């Protein structure tokens, strides 16, 4: 008496069971998995000490902006003329500077952040140097400060900001005066002539 033959499993089912078994074993990768490795994280620029101390930015500034480099000199002159309505930078409560971010009505305390390559950025303390809300310092000599927005859309709208330091508080710019007319010289004083007493004549003889 012959035993009944057991039906064979389909090849596809055997492969599926084998794959599930391999996937359940720890330490064994699934050869049929199509998932890719996660992309590498972008490198974060380290924050270095700023070459510009915050108190160097405190004061009253005339403000203007330009979009073309050839307009920078003219923009500096325009910024100097804005000292009648100056932009005021003060120290923040934790050592930063109070300035405005893009499209912001009230100032925020920002940090000066150093970066490799002798670069300096101004922006929120929680962002690494060169973040989208930052501005890069493209020029500073103590009197003129130039800042470029990192966000290209904001840079396209606002341009490169130029700050020109105003005079001390309350000081008015000197007025241009014409050439002073020379005053006529006073005639030299001469010593008064001595007054001689009148000559007395002798009385006539009697």
Quick tags:
elongated, 206 residues, alpha+beta, 8-stranded antiparallel β-barrel, 15% helix, 8 strands
Word description of this protein:
The structure is a single chain. This protein has an 8-stranded antiparallel β-barrel. A hairpin with a 3-residue loop joins strand 4 and strand 5. It has 3 helices and 8 strands; from the N terminus they run αβαββββββαβ. It is of the alpha+beta class and 206 residues long. The protein has helices at residues 11-24, 72-80, 152-158; strands at residues 59-66, 87-91, 97-99, 108-115, 119-123, 135-140, 144-149, 160-165. It is elongated and about 100 Å long.
As a whole number of angstroms, the C-alpha radius of gyration is 43 Å
Order of helices and strands: HEHEEEEEEHE
Distance between the termini: 211 Å
Large-scale geometry: elongated
Summed over residues and divided by their number, the pLDDT gives a mean of 78
Give the number of helices: 3
Write out the strand line-up for the largest beta sheet, numbering strands in chain order: 1-2-3-4-5-6-7-8
Approximate helicity band: 10-25%
* Strand-residue proportion: 15-25%
**Helix/strand class:** alpha+beta
Overall strand count: 8
The largest sheet is: 8 strands, antiparallel, barrel
Uncertain segments of ≥5 residues (pLDDT<50)? 169-174
